[in-house]
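From the shared-data thread, chain only:
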Amino acid sequence: GDAGIDAVFGFAAANTNPSAITAAASITVPTLVIAAANDCVAPPQSHQFPIYQASASSCKAFVEIDGASHCQFNDYNLTCDLGEFCSASIPRGTQHAQTLALLRPWLDAVLKNAPFAWDALQAELAAHPAYEVMQSCPVAPEPACSNGSDDDGDGLADHPADPGCDD
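Structure, as tokens:
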């Protein structure tokens, strides 16, 4: 309910008491839910995916990292690893790299309105077998002077062909 929050992302979120699924219905900012396919602490189909589905955001994405586990979103933690009775089939470093490869373009797209970030996120999502994206997320426009248009009306398009372009 904080108006200062511009986006929400979560790693292996668990449904809680009170219900995180119910609370997700009040989220209207861009939302990214990243799940681990080998999560036996908070299995994606009963935890993260329902949270994703319940989110009221029109700009949201769900992705499941194949071979990842719940505890590997963190640095090593003996207590977490002992409580997780299944294991990852990818190394922790690989899971961290795949998580960051999703998170960075997501944050760039929704917080910085960075050109090309949404395309980069779409390409990264396509590499994962289990994902779903609502396509109503705003896509950042390409910046003036690098968008193939004559932004300053002098008959030339883009740098370096249009050295005077400064729009």
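The two ends are 37 Å apart (CA to CA).
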